[in-house]
Structures are given as C-alpha cells and as structure tokens.
Specification:
Blueprint lengths: L1 H16 L9 E3 L4 E3 L18 E3 L7 E2 L12 E3 L7 E2 L12 E3 L10 H4 L7 E3 L7 E2 L12 E3 L7 E2 L12 E3 L7 E2 L12 E3 L7 E2 L12 E3 L10 H5 L6 E4 L5 E2 L2 H11 L4 E3 L7 E3 L8 H4 L5 H41 L9
Parallel strand pairs: 2-3, 3-5, 4-6, 5-7, 7-8, 8-10, 9-11, 10-12, 12-14, 13-15, 14-16, 16-17, 17-19, 18-20
Antiparallel strand pairs: 1-2
The chain binds 2-acetamido-2-deoxy-beta-D-glucopyranose (5 copies).
One 2-acetamido-2-deoxy-beta-D-glucopyranose binds next to loops.
Length: 354
C-alpha cells in the first residue's frame, strides 16, 4: 500500500515535471513550488512560470530589462533570484503586485538608476541585494515603498551621493551595507529614521568628513565599520552622539594624522564604556611623515610631548618676560630715586621730567 502511494507520487511529480510550462530551460521541482531557470541563456524573464512558484531562480542568464508587471502572474513568489544578468533597466512597476516577495537578488547586474517605481509593490520585502551594480546617486524616493526591508546590500556600486531622505522610509532596516562605494562625506540626516539599524558598513569608501550628529539617530547600532576610508582625524562628539547600548567601531586602514588632538580624542573614546574600538591596536599613522606607518598605539604616549614642550617654552618665555619687565621697572624706579636725590642736591626745582 505504502509502495503504491510512493509510485503514484513519483509518477505525479514526473508528469508535472514534463509540464510544457517548464520546458524553457527551466527545472520545476517539489510540486512546482521551485522553478529553477539558472544558466538557461534567457534574454527575457520567461513567460509561463507556474503560478504556484514560490522560488524563481533566473540567475546567470542574459536578461537586460525587467518590464513592467512581468511577474504579475507569479504573486506567490517569496524568493526571486536575478543575480548575474545584464539588467540595466527596471521599468516602473517591474515588481509590482508581489506582496509575498521576501527576498530579491539583483546583484551583479548593470543597474545605474532606480526610481520610485522600482519599489512599488515591494512592501513586504525583507532582503534586497543590489551589490555590484552601477548605482551612482541614490534618489530620495528609490526605496520609498520598502517599509518592511531588513537587509539592504549596496556593496561595490559607485555611490558618491545619497539624497537626504533616501533611507528614511525603511524604519525596519537592520543591516545597511554600503562598503566599497565612493562616498566622501557623511551629512547629518542621511541616516535619520533608521531606528532599527544594527549594522552600518561603510568600509572602503573615501570618507574624510563626517557631520557631528550623523550617527545620532542610530540608537540600535551594534556595528559601525569605517575601515579603509580617508579619515585623518575624528571629532569626539561624532561618536559620543551614538546612544546605542553597545557599538563596535572599526577604523583601521585610514590615514591618521597622529597629533596630540588625535591622541586626546582616542583617549576619551576608549574611556566610554558603550563604545568598543575593536581594531584600535591596528590603527597606523600617515602624518606626520616621521611617524608614517607607525602604530598609533605605539606612539600614543609621545604625541602630546611636543605640545607639552611648546607649552613649557611659552610659559618660560612669558615668565622671563614678566620678570624682565619687573626688573626693568625696578631699575627705572631706582634711577628715578637717584635722579631725584641728585636734583635735590643740585638745587634744581624742575622735576617735570619724572
Ligand atoms: C518526462 O520526460 C522524460 C524525458 O524528457 C521521459 O523520459 C519521461 O518518461 C517523461 N515522463 C512522463 C511521466 O511523461
Ligand atoms: C547556452 O549557450 C551556450 C553557448 O552558446 C551553450 O554552449 C549552452 O549549451 C547553452 N545553454 C543552454 C542551457 O541552452
Ligand atoms: C553583500 O554583497 C556582497 C557582494 O555580493 C556579499 O559578498 C556579501 O555577503 C553581502 N552581504 C550580505 C550581508 O548580504
Ligand atoms: C569593487 O569595485 C571596485 C571598483 O569600484 C573594483 O576595483 C573592485 O575590484 C571591486 N571589488 C570586487 C570584490 O569586485
Ligand atoms: C589587525 O590586522 C591584522 C593584519 O592585517 C589582522 O589579521 C587582524 O585581524 C586585525 N585586527 C583586528 C582587530 O581587526
């Protein structure tokens, strides 16, 4: 009886596998809930994907356009894999009506712009992979409908500008990966509203300048990666304003200007209990030239010596000047007294010179 059931089941599955709908280089599995069309030389998203499909794998093909509503017959999709294609254009509404979609992978494509129409219908998306594309400027509304997004991966694009409100609709976002882009500065307001953000990865950009309050809205942040940027100095308040319970900060691979100010900033930062400078022992100096490639940790105690010496010299100079002035004054007084004495002796009545 059991065996019969099994045979029936196998027949049923293979009959469905031979379904004409699954012949376009695709492979339908497990009662048609998985449709695998990877490496099938597709130049367009295939039509006729079974409507019951929950996972559609279109990776490693030659798809160049995502036309409007192309997946509208696949409203049960939970996972859509489109990595490693030639996608340049996502038409407005390309992913509309996909209210069950949780994960969308568009990495390793050629997307250079995204508009508001891109995110329409992706209200329940949790993970969006966009690494290795050609995005340069993030429009303020391109992620507007991604209310439920938890993970956004923008690694290795060419992003040099982020419009002020680009991330502000994503109040559920927990991970934002922006490493290996072209950011040069971080303006306050860029990360506002990201109350749930736990991981902010900004490694491998060109950041040299950060506004004092840029991280202050990030009250859940546990990891802030700023390694391999162009920071030569930081302001204490920039990190002091992170009010998360505990935050690990990575800062290696920056061209630190090892002076007394930097020494003071790091001394204060290391004394704050909720901040962890994980790679402090790996920070190296770029300036001044005599300290180039030295570990900050090794030269740390000497950085304020020059300053102390300068202060000492200034103090001594001031003291000497004051003493000299007093001495001169004293001498003049004496002279005056002597002169007075002499004029009195010489019977001169005019003392107007004094
Ligand atoms: C499905 O197709 C394969 C070859 O493509 C064939 O060998 C098999 O008999 C077919 N199964 C059914 C149930 O038609
Ligand atoms: C895809 O195209 C290549 C080269 O044209 C060919 O060798 C390969 O068999 C094709 N793959 C499929 C699944 O059609
Ligand atoms: C982000 O994308 C990069 C490159 O594709 C990948 O190596 C990395 O694992 C991704 N990170 C996450 C957290 O998804
Ligand atoms: C990331 O992009 C840069 C160009 O911006 C390139 O040089 C680098 O090799 C890329 N990294 C990876 C892992 O592909
Ligand atoms: C410090 O640098 C070394 C060598 O690059 C690396 O192996 C180590 O993991 C780094 N330490 C930290 C805390 O990042």
């Amino acid at each position: 009886m059991k065996e019969l059931l099994l045979v029936l089941l196998v027949t049923e599955v293979s009959a469905r596998s031979n379904n004409t709908r699954c012949r376009l280089g695709c492979d339908c599995r497990r009662d048609l809930r998985f449709t695998i069309c990877s490496r099938a030389n597709l130049t367009h998203p295939p039509s006729g994907v079974p409507p019951s499909t929950e996972l559609l794998d279109l990776s490693d093909n030659f798809i160049s356009i995502i036309p409007k509503k192309v997946f509208s017959k696949n409203r049960k999709l939970r996972i859509l894999l489109l990595q490693n294609n030639n996608i340049r254009v996502v038409e407005d509404g390309g992913f509309s009506q996909m209210e069950f979609l949780q994960k969308l992978d568009l990495s390793w494509n050629r997307i250079s712009t995204l508009t508001e129409g891109f995110s329409i219908g992706l209200t329940f998306l949790q993970e969006l992979q966009l690494s290795h594309n050609q995005l340069a400027n993030l429009d303020s509304r391109c992620f507007f409908h991604l209310d439920g997004l938890q993970k956004l991966n923008l690694t290795n694009n060419s992003i040099h500008a982020v419009q002020m409100r680009s991330f502000s609709s994503m109040s559920s976002l927990r991970q934002l990966h922006l490493q290996d882009n072209q950011l040069t500065s971080l303006r306050s307001g860029t990360f506002s509203m990201l109350r749930s953000l736990e991981v902010l990865n900004l490694a491998g950009n060109q950041i040299s300048d950060m506004d004092l309050s840029v991280f202050s809205p990030l009250t859940s942040m546990t990891v802030l990666n700023l390694a391999h940027n162009q920071l030569s100095t930081v302001t204490f308040k920039t990190f002091l304003s992170i009010h998360a319970y505990s935050t690990h900060i990575q800062l290696q691979g920056n061209p630190w200007n090892c002076d007394c100010d930097l020494h003071r900033v790091f001394r204060k930062l290391r004394s704050i209990q909720r901040l962890f400078l994980d790679d402090y022992s790996n920070l190296t100096c770029m300036e001044p030239p005599v300290l180039r490639n030295d570990l900050l940790m090794d030269v740390d105690s000497e950085l304020c010596i020059a300053e102390t010496v300068t202060v000492l010299i200034i103090t001594i100079t001031v003291v000497i000047t004051v003493l000299a002035a007093m001495l001169m004054g004293e001498r003049k007084k004496k002279k005056r007294r002597k002169g007075l004495h002499w004029t009195q002796q010489g019977d001169f009545s005019d003392d107007s010179d004094f």
